[in-house]
Amino acid sequence: MALIVEDGTGKADAEAYISVADADAYFAARGDLAWAALDNQAKEQALRKGADYMASAYGTQWKGERISPTQALDWPRRCVRVARFTLPMAAIPLAVSRANAEMAVRSIGGDLQADEASQVKQETVGPITVIYSDGARQGVRYAAVDGMLSSLLRGGGAGSIPVVRA
């Protein structure tokens, strides 16, 4: 099944923000061998997983609003201001496309959002014991991707709290 890439029109069936060819060029420029080792079908699947992760992790944090209630992905958006400029409504920011690629390559190693169970406070394996602090994070935080997208998120980044003046 061919990957359907969002082109800025708000496609109802879009599955990713970047094509396999563009992701190939992005990773070739960075010397990423893990991406290069995948076949085309695996790359398409990874890009879908990357876009799915972005919707789950950032969907409520994006600046602006969707241009259509029927669009499949969170972008394109209207009323997005970055550094005192309003982004064109039909544009998919380069950071969004690149973040989709980055999340795709991270998905090669397994689930991007694994189910979380109760936290383990202490583990002993053989002679090694590890004790985790209360409230320690269970999931993975993708700091590089959070940084890429920070200017497009309300409050400036994932995990930040918007402050509203009363």
Describe the structure.
This protein is of the alpha+beta class and 166 residues long. 33% of the residues lie in helices and 10% in strands. It is built from five helices and six strands; from the N terminus they run αααββββαββα. It has helices at 20-30, 33-36, 40-58, 94-107, 143-149, and strands spanning 65-66, 77-78, 81-82, 85-86, 122-125, 128-131. Strands 1-2 form a two-stranded antiparallel sheet. The protein has a two-stranded antiparallel ribbon with strand order 3-4. A two-stranded antiparallel ribbon has the order 5-6.
Please provide a brief summary of the model.
Helices cover 33% and strands 10% of the residues. By secondary structure, it is an alpha+beta fold.
